[in-house]
Amino acid sequence: MTTTESPAGRTGPLGRLGGYAGLLLVVLLVAVPLYWILISSLKERPDIYTVPVSWWPDPLTFDNYTAVGGGVAFSDYLRNSIIITSALTLIQVVLGVLSAFALAFLRFPGRTLVLLFVIGSLMVPNQITMISNYALVAQLGWRNTFTGIIVPLAGVAFGTFLMRNHFLALPREVIEAAEMDAAGPLRMLWRVVLPMSWPTLIAFTLITIVTEWNQYLWPLLMADDARIAPLPVGLAQLQDTQGLTNWGPVLAGTVLTMLPILLIFLALQRHMIKGLTAGAVKG
Amino acid sequence: MATDLVVGAPAGTAPALPPRPPEHRREPRERGRRRGILVAGAFLLPNLVLLAVFTYRPLLDNVRLSFTDWNISSPTASYIGFDNYVEWFTSSASHTVLWNTVVFTAAAVLGSMALGLALALLLDRNLFGRNAVRSLVFAPFVVAGAAVGVAFQFVFDPTFGLIQDLLGRIGVEAPAFYQDPEWALFMVTTTYIWKNLGYTFVIYLAALQGRRAELDEAAEIDAASAWAKFRRVTWPQLRPATFFLLITVLLNSFQVFDIIDTMTRGGPLGNGTTTMVYQVYQETFVNQRAGFGATVATIMFVILLVVTLVQVRAMERGQQQ
Questions:
Q1: Which of A29, A225, A252, A269 is within CB 3.0–4.6 Å of A68 for a Cys-Cys bond?
Q2: What residues in A contact B254, CB-CB < 8 Å?
Q3: Which of B43, B233, B277 should be substituted to probe chain A, the one whose Cβ sees the most A Cβ atoms within 10 Å?
């Protein structure tokens, strides 16, 4: 995250002490549940169910991971998540960049209307469109297919808006110079606009990856079986199938669902946050 | 041609014999304009079609379905007028659902914004290890809500969960999170806030770092108290971020599904933690009453629309001042 020094922070020793007390409290509240989930996933079955809870697995075991990972279903869920997330990210980034380019640089009648049409769709949550979309997809015979999960989620509004705002902020002289040279639109996008846009494009891509990896409701409706269900849906089914949840493998599955995104986030957090905060701070 | 519909390109309007323009220089310009329209159409069309078919079409279709008794699997449905609406507005179950939605949304918005602001103020200060803590606070926001729901079902487990254990150590008996509807609602709300705190925190932190240092320094020279400084100098500068968060957090928490589905499935006692979104799902796909589900969805959309418009108006007024 940003390390910019802010004008606050000049406080006396008492204030500093209070600050560290606050810091400690935050760490406890956020880290302890995460830590406990992680170590519980490394415990043997009886150890998970001991009261009072134990803070270190005794003995430490990876059995839960081999149980959940070795099962055919879970590696399928993982593969499905990768397929769905990659396809949606690729489609959304391409469509988002092309739409944003057209809205920022090309003159055509009805441009404002098209922009409103795109932004307006941000107001419509998936939960409201799911009934009618479910019916349409079922009619098309797309239930239990990747197409059924991917296509209805593929339209891109947020990314279009984000990239368009970024494009409009690019230096006008460069754009005009490129237009003077009569560069074709694709050439202009590829040679002039995109090279100046990597940070925003990366932010857009990362936010898309996170959103699609975590997608739950729509894939839940679309996927009855493990052949196409992504991890979050598989995880809920894992918890569901046993009458009484067998927590070891479920917790291992939880950790495996969270881990890839957490690793991407830790490596690239600065970029991700840039996209989220764009437009939020200066009204 | 669909292109014409979307971008309004006058493709069909070109006369068969275009009159030669008086000045030859203008011709390439005109051609360039037409080419621009075609390119814009090609660039925008796939996205616009997807949004039209999968966002706007179902939005309108919902309204139609809300006047039927459709059961989602049969190809036919009969028109029943306002029956669904009358049922929703008069049934006591719906009142509980509406109440749950209001309580959950209000608590999630106020809780995560207040805590996010407090955290941002804390982590804006020059403390050792703050970058690591910043990452830690933001981390839960990027993981799947379904995974957080499953994990926290275990954390709140009444017999071997973390919460009952910690409460037991200080001599408090854990409340019946999975039996008492009020505690169940408290549980899912807390979990939601825990997961989403990082978002409000990051937005507020960015706003704090973008604020104007001269104002703070002026306040310090005037020896203003910490509270006066916050109230008169910092808080007014956070106004855009606050409005932005009010809208986005409200929209997001109103739509929560994954945490409720994985933690309580809308229960206990039938609808203890059922919010409107969960009711739409439950009625449509579990009770096979898609017509009624569409009614709830339509009501939900109207509420969202009104709330957003009111907030946007308030924001515009706030900016004019």
A1: A252
A2: 125
A3: B43
Residue A216 to residue B261, Cβ atoms within 8 A: yes
Sequence-distant (≥ 6) Cβ neighbours of residue B300 within 8 angstroms: A127, A128, B254, B276, B277, B280
Burial B6-20 (b: 16+ CB within 10 A, else e): bbbbeeeeeeeeeee
In order of B168, B176, B273, the CA distances from B183 in angstroms are: 17, 7, 9
Cα–Cα distance, A250 to A236 (Å, whole number): 9
Give the span between the Cα atoms of B299 and A65, in whole angstroms. Answer: 44
Query: Is A72 in CB contact (< 8 Å) with chain B?
Result: no
Residues of A in Cβ contact (< 8 Å) with B46: 95, 98
- Render the burial of B127-148: b for 16+ CB within 10 Å, e for the rest: beebeebbbbbbbbbbbbbbbb
Q: Which residue type occupies B230?
A: F
Q: Contacts of residue A129 in chain B, CB cutoff 8 Å?
A: 54-55, 58-59, 62
How does DSSP assign A260-271, residue by residue? Answer: HHHHHHHHHHHH
Distance from the Cα of A144 to chain B's closest Cα (Å) equals 16
C-alpha–C-alpha distance, residues A269 and B141, integer Å = 12
Paired with B68 in beta bridges are B79
Cα distances from B156 to residues A69, B148, B164, B183, in angstroms, run 25, 12, 7, 11
User: Model-level pTM greater than 0.80?
Assistant: yes
Farthest CA pair distance, chain A: 75
Strand-pair partners of A60: A43
Choose the mutation target among A2, A10, A26, A158 for the interface with B, i.e. most B CBs under 10 Å. A26
Q: Which run of H or E residues covers position B254? A: helix B239-254
Comparing C-alpha atoms, which of A94, A137, A122, A81 is closest to residue B61? A137
A84, A230 contact by CB (below 8 A): yes
- Using the beta-carbon criterion (under 8 Å), do B162 and A32 form an inter-chain contact? yes
- Taking CB atoms and an 8 Å limit, are A258 and B144 in contact across chains? yes
Q: Mutation test of the interface with chain A: which of B142, B170, B251, choosing the one with the most A Cβ atoms within 10 A?
A: B142
- pLDDT tens string, chain B, 321 residues long: the values are 333 333 333 333 444 444 554 544 555 567 667 777 888 999 999 999 999 999 999 999 999 999 999 998 888 888 999 999 999 999 999 999 999 999 999 999 999 999 999 999 999 988 888 899 999 999 999 999 999 999 999 999 888 889 998 998 898 888 989 889 999 999 999 999 999 999 999 999 999 988 777 777 777 777 778 888 888 888 888 988 999 899 899 989 999 999 999 999 988 888 999 999 999 999 999 999 999 999 999 999 999 999 888 888 887 887 666
Q: Name the phi and psi angles at B169, rounded to 5.
A: -65, -30
